[in-house]
């Protein structure tokens, strides 16, 4: 695939290549989120990076839709491709939503433990990328889906602990409102990873 | 279709006619919401009007389901018709949810800017009605879907700005809880317009 | 089906038997929730019981998935079976989420009226169990779905009244945040019952 020509000629990517790009892009978004929470400086710039990845995801999604419109034989059902891209898009939308709330709410320091939730999102999206890379050959793909389910349960447990701690320690109701939501949006992004795994599972079962 | 007879005889509406009615009904709901927010008097009466439109939508949906049960050849897949009607139903449910919260929360004046969010909902639902009117002939239908996506992004931007302003200006946490939710429910109604557009897109792609 | 042998030999359950088990399990979860709210003692133990039912549901779901993977002819489309099990799973997830919030938020007494909302959930899940028991023979199944829709509307009405009352009576914003969410999660569980009914409706219409 590399080499001079492929850099010059317009690439005709396959669907699977575009799915991998989408998956790697949500993983890049999750990584940027961990970085932002662990190194909370130049916030506006870091939030813009995540927003940029979200726009990149939209561009790839539109390319998939265009290709779908011009292709007769697709690797799996058109409506499953549609659901896969829109669910994967949700993960990055929610990552971006969590990031942008830090700006909207003028958050000046990150509560301890919140970065751990973003790390679970990073792991879950990495696992999605792995699953999508083997989507064509299907080896061990259901194992990756099971692992994503496990990570979703862990995300649930961690976010509950963070919220319990928030109500325990924080007495200002406005701070409680802000942080409760940031934690929940991150958890929701992890939930969406499970939805992506469900779509993958469903596609694999249908084409078994 | 017009003329004396069609007014007298029981109409046997086609699926497409009923889809247009459903779409125009959610647009009527959004218009009533803008009116309510811009002219905040006789609140209980205006909220009842929106509730009435929601019931009307349920009646049309049941008629679609009944026709589906009695029809052998449908214009597109039965399950897509089902998803289309239930997603479009969600838009009006959420419009109604936003309206009814004004009563539940005993809101006595509307915060500046909130009507702008309802206007985006009005535009998005008008665009859905336009798309549904051309669903049979399919001309330029994907352009309408793209415009609905753009409006969803704008709704997102406006609601984020409203919430930032809310936290900036309002110091009473109870007022923050109430208004944050009203804004979010309106934004959610706009999000659902994007889901409707996705169903339309998916149907068009499947039957390409 | 009963008798000595079926108790000794490993059972090869049919899909329909497993669907009934899943439905009865969410009904058991709802019953345990009513019991918890009406008899608010030994909270940690009662919350664990609901968590246990949620794990049981996961186990049945995995068994369905495994059987799906090993079966050539399925009673209805593979993707519908997948959607049915994942939607029904959501009901118990949300029941468990409501229960666990009582612990997370260190709730020490239950507000009046909240148990009524859980009773609607109990009724809706009982109705799902009834619908699923007749799924194979299909008699009057759509009537059960209509009744679940009615219960969803009632859940909506009751939760709105509870939230209005909460804002009326409770002055502590932190208490408002906690109870508003517990009420909403319960209402969301009831909403999901309507989603289950929609999947059942859709399956019945498709296979009409």
Keywords:
homotrimer, 208 residues, mainly alpha, 7 helices, 80% helix, 0% strand, disordered N terminus
Structural write-up:
3 copies of one chain form a homotrimer. The first copy, chain A, is mainly alpha-helical and 208 residues long. Chain A has a single domain (12-206), classed as Up-down Bundle (Methane Monooxygenase Hydroxylase, Chain G, domain 1). Chain A is 80% helix and 0% strand. Chain A is built from 7 helices and no strands. Chain A starts with a helix and ends with a helix. Mean pLDDT of chain A is 90; it is low at 1-10. Chains in contact: A-B, A-C, B-C. Chains A and C meet through helix 6 and helix 7 of A and helix 3, helix 4 and helix 7 of C.
Rg result of chain A: 18 Å
Structural class per helix/strand content of chain A?
mainly alpha
Shape of chain A: globular
What is the typical, i.e. mean, pLDDT of chain A? 90
Greatest interface: A-B, 15 and 14 residues
Topology:
Three copies of one chain form a homotrimer.
Chain A: H1 4-8, H2 15-38, H3 43-70, H4 78-104, H5 114-133, H6 141-169, H7 173-206
Helix pairs in contact in A: 2-3, 2-4, 2-5, 3-4, 4-7, 5-6, 5-7, 6-7
Quick structural summary:
3 copies of one chain form a homotrimer. The first copy, chain A, has 208 residues and is mainly α. The first copy, chain A, has helices spanning 4-8, 15-38, 43-70, 78-104, 114-133, 141-169, 173-206.
